[in-house]
Amino acid sequence: MAQKTETITLPDKTFSCSGGQGPLGHPQVYLTFTDKGKIDCPYCGRHFIFEAHVNHSTQMDGVK
What we know:
Blueprint: E1 7-10, E2 14-17, E3 29-32, E4 38-40, E5 47-50, H1 51-61
Parallel strand pairs: 1-5
Antiparallel strand pairs: 2-3, 4-5
């Protein structure tokens, strides 16, 4: 059975991920969002979304 991947929305463009499991996690890596506003951790596969990108996309949905 495939493990569910967690999706996290963050307010900062640069952040770190350590797997979230203390000593059972993975080495801490620093990641920076691209212009697409999304990135996956290369170790644990968590999906990260840039909060400003989500807010901008939501506002643009109503614009015609």
